[in-house]
Design goal:
By secondary structure, the protein is an alpha+beta fold. The protein is built from five helices and three strands. It has helices spanning about 25-35, 35-45, 60-75, 95-100, 105-115, and strands at about 50, 80-85, 85-90. A hairpin with a 2-residue loop joins strand 2 (about 80-85) and strand 3 (about 85-90). Helix 1 packs antiparallel against helix 3 (about 60-75). Pfam families: HTH_20. This is ArsR/SmtB family transcription factor. InterPro entries: ArsR-like_HTH (IPR011991), HTH_ArsR_DNA-bd_dom (IPR001845), WH-like_DNA-bd_sf (IPR036388), WH_DNA-bd_sf (IPR036390).
């Protein structure tokens, strides 16, 4: 009897995400420092649920969008899952709040203040 590998995903379209305890402050701050990525996070925070990539309008090419979403996912800021052909995005608010209390709310408030000219 041959042993099956432990790390084989149940479906071929699962994406890797860092465990909550592996999320690093520097990675999160780097991800949130970009205005395009911050607009994605703001949209997800305002929605409170899941949004498809196509539901968030960004002023960049599709390949650049893919890059921004990957940075957000790999830093632990959002979770991405496939639902059919759509890639759904959800803010990892609880993980971020548990790891870095108040950080996400502070960044979102500051971003909203900048956007309103304040």
């Amino acid at each position: 009897m041959t042993k099956q590998p432990d790390a084989v995903p149940a479906r071929g379209r699962e994406l890797p995400h860092p465990d909550p305890d592996a999320i690093r402050l520097g990675d999160v701050l780097h991800a949130l420092a970009d205005p395009v990525r911050l607009s994605v996070v703001s949209a997800l925070a305002a929605d409170g649920g899941e949004l498809a990539c196509s539901e968030i309008e960004l002023p960049v090419t599709r390949s650049t969008c893919t890059h921004h979403y990957r940075v957000l996912r790999e830093s632990g800021v959002l979770r991405q899952i496939y639902r059919g052909t759509a890639k759904m995005n959800q803010l990892r608010r609880k993980d971020l709040d548990d790891r870095f209390p108040g950080l996400l709310d502070s960044v979102l408030a500051a971003a909203a203040g900048e956007g309103s000219g304040g």
